[in-house]
Write a structure and sequence with these properties.
about 110 residues, mainly alpha, two-stranded antiparallel ribbon, 2 strands, about 50% helix, extended
Length: about 110
C-alpha cells in the first residue's frame, strides 16, 4: 500500500504574531476608528486576547492611550466624522464632493 504524503499547512512564523511598534500603532489607530478591540485586533492580524495581554504587559500608560483612543474615536463618530479611505484623516461622513454644477454657495 503506497504511503501518501500529506504536507502540513503553511504556518506563519512566530515573528508574524509578535507586537512591533508598527503593529501597536496600527492597532491603536484601528481601535479609535472602529471602537472595537476585536475589529482592531483582526485588522492587524492578532487575537483579541493578545491585545488585552499587551495592555496588561505595557501597564497604565498604555492603558491610558488605549482608553483615550476609544474616547477620541467615539467623539469623532458622534460628530459625524469617519476615517477616510486612505486611513490618514477624519472626514465628514457621506458625500463630500460637490455635485456637477454645484457652486457651493447661495445665489
Amino acid at each position: 500500500m503506497p504511503h501518501t504524503h500529506n504536507p502540513r499547512p503553511f504556518r506563519r512564523s512566530n515573528a508574524e504574531y509578535r507586537w512591533s511598534r508598527l503593529r501597536i500603532h496600527a492597532f491603536l489607530r484601528a481601535l479609535a476608528v472602529t471602537g472595537s478591540v476585536a475589529a482592531a485586533s483582526r485588522a492587524v492580524g492578532v487575537s483579541r486576547q493578545s491585545a488585552y495581554r499587551l495592555r496588561r504587559r505595557l501597564g497604565a500608560g498604555f492603558a491610558e492611550v488605549w482608553d483615550e483612543g476609544l474616547r477620541l474615536g467615539a467623539q469623532m463618530r458622534r460628530g459625524g466624522l469617519v476615517y477616510d479611505a486612505q486611513g490618514d484623516r477624519w472626514v465628514p461622513q457621506g458625500d463630500t464632493f460637490a455635485r456637477q454644477g454645484d457652486t457651493g454657495g447661495a445665489r
